[in-house]
Amino acid sequence: MPVTDFAALSLAPELLTTLQDLNYRQMTPIQQQSLPAILAGQDVIAQAQTGSGKTAAFALGLLSRLKVKRFRIQSLVLCPTRELAEQVAKEIRTLGRSIHNIKVLTLCGGVPSRHQILSLEHGAHILVGTPGRLLDHLQQQRLDLSELSTLVLDEADRMLEMGFLDDVATIAAATPANRQTLLFSATYPAQIEQLAASLMRQPLRVSVQQAEAESPIAQQFYALGDSSREEAVMRLLQQHQPASCVVFCNTKRVTQQLTDALQQHGFSAKALHGDLEQKDRDQTLLQFANQSARILVATDVAARGLDISDLELVINAELAHDTDTHTHRIGRTGRAGAKGQAFSLVDGKDDYKVSLLQDELTKTIQLQPLPALSLLDKTPAKATMVTIQIQGGKKQKLRPGDIVGALTRNQQIAFDDVGKIQLHDLWAYVAVKRSVAKKALQILNHDKMKGRNFKAWQL
Q1: For 1, which DSSP code?
Q2: Where does the record place the DEAD-box RNA helicase Q domain (predicted)?
């Protein structure tokens, strides 16, 4: 019988206490298959989709091996994107919160190196970052990986897709040969096999594939016919009015064109692709996560690693180039027991892709007609929230409580009308319900926080 309860594992009492507090009792299938081997120090290759619980699997492994009193870099997690790295670091900190004095440092591109250099000078136990930035620090001799015990490659397939193979190999070469290596990947192409062979020692390979019968995602395929792709997406959006939807495109150009068309027709849409400046990218993700934007139009690489909860709908404006990518796209919805929907647009050039999907689904795909053209006469629904940016952050000692306090003081705005708050060094973002946005801006621009005035504006 496979072990299913975390309490049956040889985990430190403080880790078990944290798992109980977080209501993590039963392991997910990937955790059941990989965690015993990870805790035993074995190299592991784990193939599993996003949302399978893989982050907790390797996080518990590296936290178990950690020697807190030894203030050296002991674990390194490589991720393809900054968003995934920050998400992973957050989960490691959450799971390790009962172990005092753990330092988890995130090293990613898109932000100035200056603060990272200062943090590195003060030392760390666990590093989480993107290959490019980590390699830069390594080449500048700011990293000492000589005492590394665990190397994790998360979303390894996407790191290779993004051209990080050489960077990963160079970083791995700077670590001890006797380290433990853990490789997590949604797909297992030949390149991953070659990478594993070069970096790992007799790895255990585990794989968890979600059976189609268990899938909580309802898929529908629509014939594009004579309609333009933009018009087809709009008809689907108008018929279903999702509060949150990701629309996938295959190229940056189509992504931007579709976003522009949606915005011109009044849809609450944002683009996410590789040509965006980091600041614009961060603000787009922030607005989608806090419900200030209903629709995110994205390329596969740009959306990799996004952890979006309560996503109602995925639309493939263009069919993915392969079945693995299609599966990964639609896996963004229907998570954590919720039901999800995935719609795919099919044109006359997609016969080969459709046949591959039919083989994967082991059933014939029936193309449906698009919803009525008259739906385009309706006014698109606006986002529930708006985001306000405040010119002040951690450096000015601002805390979320200061912002909430200012907005709700004397019941000017109801507590329930204030959404997510995100603090950065020099900026803060707060989501408020659209109906109170004007009042919230007035309060933040005229009332004091921390005894001083801050400038605020709506994004």
Answers
A1: -
A2: 4-32
